[in-house]
Amino acid sequence: MASNALQYKDLTPAQPLDKATLNKMVWRSCNLQGSFNYERMQANGWLYSILPGLEKIHTNKDDLSASMQHNLEFFNTHPFLVTFVMGIVLSLEQQKADINTIRAVRVAAMGPLGGIGDAIFWFTLVPITAGITSNMAIGGSIAGPILFLVIFNLVQFLVRFWLMNWSYQLGTKAIELLTKNAKEFTRAASMLGVFIVGALTSNYGGTTVKLEIANGDSPIVIQSILDGVLPKMIPLFFTLLLYFLLKKKGWTPVKCIILLIVIGLVGALPFIGLF
Questions:
Q1: Distance CA 84, CA 179 (A)
Q2: What DSSP character marks residue 37?
Q3: Chain centroid offset of residue 48 CA
Q4: Rounded Cα gap, residues 40 and 220, in angstroms
Q5: Domain spans of the chain?
Q6: Mind giving me the DSSP string for 90-105?
Q7: Which residue of 40, 209, 216, 261 shows the fewest CB atoms closer than 10 Å?
Q8: By three-state DSSP, how is residue 75 classified?
Q9: Is the pLDDT of residue 139 over 90?
């Protein structure tokens, strides 16, 4: 039976890539979304990132052209975890695996990383880091935002460099190891992130109602009544409202921000002398 595999012309395995080349591709991966488009998503940035390795692996110009061509196909994954896919693909390219196999592995590797990356970075790292540093910023310290950027970028670059070297050494085995418990890991990280968001809402939610009902010398303060029922009720209400609009109604974050600005301005009007 004839094989449908697309082979490179030179099937001699290439020499392992040196650490300098691997590190160069890690730095280039920061440009993954620099040419993002709706036809091939991150394909241009992907090829730009992986090109130094391909040029060292494929000394045959026709093979390099074929490799560049199939690496320009549709590609989309989490930008901070892309080096995981790069390491696996480079390992296959180095062994001169057939092109269809490399394509299939590339798609299989990039798929699960979206949920895993969101759980690690947006649902866990960002809320925790923001929770640590926002109090410093609220207190007027310029170290707050600086520390946030330092922690966040230190973690993401450590992950980028480690994943590149780890997945390159393991090859296709890395997919099985990372995705074996991906569902459970993603759920656990998401739960931790939700917990942190809830804690931040309770700790830093400062929205209050300033309405008072005249009652002689002891006016009835509406906010005190609400606090007696449930402290931080207003911040909780707005958090749940935004979740509902984002999750159920398909609102964009920009629409939610505009809504909060409008509510804040309208709510403040009676207390700034305009009414």
A1: 12
A2: B
A3: 20
A4: 61
A5: 8-180, 205-271
A6: HHHHHTT--HHHHHHH
A7: 216
A8: strand
A9: no
Question: Are the beta carbons of 201 and 235 closer than 8 angstroms?
Answer: yes
Name the pLDDT band for 62 (thresholds 50, 70, 90): very high
H or E segment and range at residue 156: helix 143-170
Which residues does 171 contact at the CB level (< 8 Å), separation at least 6? 88, 91, 92, 95
Dig out the tokens for 43 from the structure.
């394909």
Structure tokens given for 112: 């699960």
Cα-trace Rg, the chain: 26
Both tokens assigned to 203:
């700790």
Q: Using alpha carbons only, what angle is made at residue 51 by residues 50 and 52, rounded to the nearest 5 degrees?
A: 100
Give the predicted TM-score (pTM) of the model: 0.65
> Could you tell me how far CA 237 lies from the centroid of its own chain?
27
Q: Using the structure block, give the residue that is written with the tokens 């670059």.
A: 157
Both tokens of 175, joined, read 């997919």
